[in-house]
Specification:
37% helix, three-stranded mixed sheet, TIM Barrel, eight-stranded parallel β-barrel, binds D-gluconic acid, alpha/beta, 16 helices, globular
Length: 457
Amino acid sequence: MSFPEDFVWGAATASYQIEGGTYEDGKGLSVWDVFCRQPGKIWGGNNGDIACDHYHLYQEDARLMGELGLKAYRYSISWPRVLPEGTGAVNEKGLDFYDRLVDVLLENGVQPWVTLFHWDYPQSLLQRGGWLNRESSDWFTEYTSVVVDRLSDRVSHWMTLNEPQVFITFGHQGDYHAPGLNLEFSDALVAAHNSLLAHGKAVQVIRAHAKTRPNIGAVHAASIYFPGTEKQEDIEAAHSRMFSITGKNCWNNTWFADPMILGRYPEDGLRLFESELPDIPDGDMGTICQPLDFYGLNNYEGRGVRATDDGGSEIIQSPDGPPLTTMEWQVTPAGYYWGPRFLFERYKLPIVVTENGMANCDWIHRDGRVHDPQRIDYMARYLSELKRAIDEGITVNGYFVWSLMDNFEWAYGYRQRFGIVHVDYATQKRTPKDSAYWYKDVIASNGSTLTNLPGTG
Ligand code: GCO
C-alpha cells in the first residue's frame, strides 16, 4: 500500500507544550504561563516553564527528526517570545531562535510547517481585551508580518489558527483552558468572530509578504461521525451529524470552517445563535474568506452513527469495554476514511492530517526501550483507512503524528504521553519508542510496510 509520491510524512508539536525557556531572552508572558499558576487547573500543578526544554535542545531534536526520516515538522511559534507585549517591540532573540530552528530543520532534511497561533496568546494583549477586542485581528496581523518577513525565505507552509473550536470553547466560553474567561456565549461568539478575522487578515499578509510561494491552511479540531454501515441512509445520517450545529457552543465543524472556506456562517448556527450573535460589519465575511491551500484536520476519535426509523439519527453506543487510549478516547479508525471524505466533499480543499495519534501508558522498559505496540496498531489502523480514502479519490496530502515527543498536555500536564519519542523530564533524555522506529520504516517505504503487523517487521 504505497501512498502518493509526494505524500508528506511528519510529526507535530506546539510551542507552549515543548519549548520551556519561559523566562529567557526577553520572552513575554503568555496566557498559559499565567493560567498554569492557578491552583487546581493543571494536573499535578504542572506547567510549561521547562517542558521538553526544546528551547535549548532544538538542535538535538532536529537531528532526531532527520534520523527518523521525517519529511516535515509542524510546530508553532510563541507570539509573546517574538513580541513580548503582543505588538510593538520585536524581541530579536526570540525571533532568532525560530530563525535558527528553521535552518537546523532544513539541514536535517525536514521541511518546516509553521503554525502561527497554538494558544499561547500574549498576556499583555489579554489585558487589552484579547480576542474580544476587534483590534485583535490587527495585532495578529502585525505579529504575522514580523514572522513571515523573517522566515518566509525558507518557510513556505503556514497555518494560521490551531483549533479555534478548542481555544474559544475551553478557554473563552469555559475555564478549562487558558485564559479561562467563562464568558457568556454571546461574548464567546465575539471572540470567535475576531479570531476568524485574524485568520483572514493573516492569510492576506502571508500572501503579500511571503518570499517563497506560500501554502496556507487553518487547523480544525474536526468532530468525525461515520456511518455504522454503508447503507445510504446511515451515510446520510453521519454526514448530517458532521455538518450540523446542535448546541450553543462553537464545538462543531462548520462555525469556523464555513466562513473561512465558503464565506458565510452556517444557516443552522445563525438560527440557533440568533439572540447571541454580534453585529457583523459588511465586508467581514469577505476578509475572513481567503483562498486556502489545505484543510488542516486534527482528530483522534470519532463516533458511529445510524439512521433511525423516524428519519433522524443516533450515535451508536459502543460495546462495554471499548478500546481506549489513556485519554479515554476511543480507537475508531473508520473515521479516517469517512471524515476526510466528508470534509473534502464539502470544502473541496486538499486535506492534511495535521494531528493524529494517541496517549499511551509508556515507560522505559528493562531493556532500555519503550515498547508501545498499541500506538503502532492505532496508527496503522488509522493510516490504512486514510489510504482507502486516498484510493477513492479524496485528496490527502500529508499526515502529522501528534506528537513528535511526550510533552505538556494542557490541563493533563505531563500525565499523558502522546510522543513517538519518550521524554524523561528529569534528565530531558529522549528515547525513541518502538513506534518511532516503526514510523521511520513507514516513511521510508512510503506506507508500503503498513500492512505488516506490529512485531513482525
Ligand atoms: C489539541 C492540540 C494539541 C493537543 C493534542 C492532544 O488538539 O488539543 O492541538 O496541542 O496536545 O491534540 O490532545
